[in-house]
Amino acid sequence: MAQHFVVHPRDPQPRLIRQAAEMLRAGKLAAVPTDSAYALAGHLSDAQILDRIRKIRAVDERHHFTLLCRDLSELATYARVDNAQYRLLKAAMPGPYTFILVGAKELPRRVLHPRKKTIGLRVPSHKVLRALLTELGEPLIASTLILPGEQEPLNDGETIVERLGHALDLVLDAGACPGGATTVLDLSAGDIRLLREGMGSLAALGISVEE
Questions:
Q1: 110 in a domain, yes or no?
Q2: Residue 211 scores a pLDDT above 50
Q3: How far, in Å, CA of 130 to CA of 98, rounded?
Q4: What CATH number did the domain enclosing 121 receive?
Q5: Which of 4, 33, 82, 105 would you call most buried, defined as having the most Cβ atoms within 10 angstroms of its Cβ?
Q6: How would you write 167-203 as a 3-class SS string?
Q7: Is the peptide bond before 33 cis (omega within 30 degrees of 0)?
Q8: Rounded Cα–Cα distance for residues 146 and 119 (Å)
């Protein structure tokens, strides 16, 4: 049964953040809060994490996973980013945006899209998740916590424990997230392509996109 850590959304308890980081380093699967919705997340180096997430979400190997990063320096480490793309990322991050980029050679091939060799990347602004990523010192591999046949992500810690306690190791409960989806922009082909318009404002970035 999943451990249930209730943390303050604006001033997370350091002891619980350290314990959560230790569990993730040990290969545990967690539900974590983000600035959009709860996500399933685990350690990047653990090969079983992807299989566990795919089973819960009922998705195949073509599903785009996302790296949750603490800052822009990690984005540049794990993806190929040119100067124009970096300026766009800097304008958007941290915030509710996910960018699809070509993965760097440092990434395990199993986390990349099998054909496109791409990965989703984002720098969230949620204080609990940022504290966790800082404690870890490395990104988490993640996917939004949407169950098969449902349209909206689970957004309540108690509900996540009740419905997924058997399948998770940890629920990091910081209360309800905004509950919306991130805006997803694909930069992998050199242009800017809108895959999903969500919480992140396009006007705020001053860009036009091809749908």
A1: yes
A2: no
A3: 16
A4: 3.90.870.10
A5: 33
A6: CCCEEEECCCCCCCCCEEEECCCCCCEEEECCCCCCH
A7: no
A8: 19
Pairing status of strand 183-186 against strand 97-102: parallel
162-187 in b/e form (b: 16+ CB < 10 A) is: eebeeebbbbbbbeebeebbbbbbbb
3-state secondary structure of 86: helix
CA–CA gap between residue 171 and residue 165 (Å, rounded):
8
Q: What is the pLDDT of residues 48-84, one digit of tens each?
A: 999 999 999 999 888 889 999 999 888 878 999 999 8
Phi, psi of 52 (to 5 degrees): -65, -40
DSSP string, 24-51: HHTT--EEE--SSS-EEEEETT-HHHHH
- Find the angle CA(138)-CA(30)-CA(11) to the nearest 5 degrees: 70
Is 173 a domain residue?
yes
Residue 210 belongs to some domain of the structure: no
Amino acid at 10: R
81-126 pLDDT, tens digit each = 999 899 999 999 999 999 999 999 888 888 898 889 999 999 999 9
* 3-state secondary structure (DSSP) of residue 94: coil
How far is residue 121's CA from residue 142's CA, in Å, rounded to a whole number?
Answer: 10
Number of domains in the chain: 1
Token pair belonging to 125: 């602004």
Amino acid (one-letter) located at 166: H
